[in-house]
């Protein structure tokens, strides 16, 4: 077999493998969506769940998932941004930097259930936060930090060195150059990483079972006192998320229409995660085109 034929054969094999992977993924997504979309309605998305009766919804769980995502990003993004800037712009190549990078790699490889157990021991038990949104958000921060930090670092490194030289030549300090020149230039990549990590957080279940809890108490949307456990903005209340709710339905079997609720909730979860992924690509491309055309 000559080189051209070998190249065509290898290329065909790679295309075939890629096609099989895409077909498997598409079949999985279509199966979940086809089973779940017929059960989705406005009442399903807004009504609270019911344990021993049919006709429950996912309103509280959906709100909990979005609120927990917001709190987690408010905690993890500033830390990740600072760590990414340090590793990209200030860190010297020595054993300290190697330890930091190794720690990030180890943390990113930990199973989410281990992060959940760590959060249970530290935040729920030792710090006394109990099963709450803040416990879940802090646990997910450890889960999210490696991905976001690497994303910020790689986005900053992708900015050409001439941008930094231009800022310094204009009399800007190193910090001003980073904040006013480098970070804005890397913003499309950073924003894409933030949205993708948001989708990952939204679909997380194992780490939240041990930290945010497995119950969804009724919320009083007329009560905005953050110290009240019935307030929707309280970070010290239990908050069963959508992913945990799906797990709970399929393990406890206390709902007469559990299969329908599980299918509908799974479809909503998939649609939201897909929205995060496609939204990240769309926003990243729009920002990149706008910045390159400016």
UniProtKB/TrEMBL annotation:
The keyword Transmembrane applies. The keyword Repressor does not apply. Keywords: Cell membrane, Membrane, Transmembrane, Transmembrane helix, Transport. It holds the Pfam family BPD_transp_1. It is found in: Cell membrane. Belongs to the binding-protein-dependent transport system permease family. CysTW subfamily. This is Phosphate transport system permease protein PstA. The lineage of its organism: Bacteria, Bacillati, Bacillota, Bacilli, Lactobacillales. The gene is pstA.
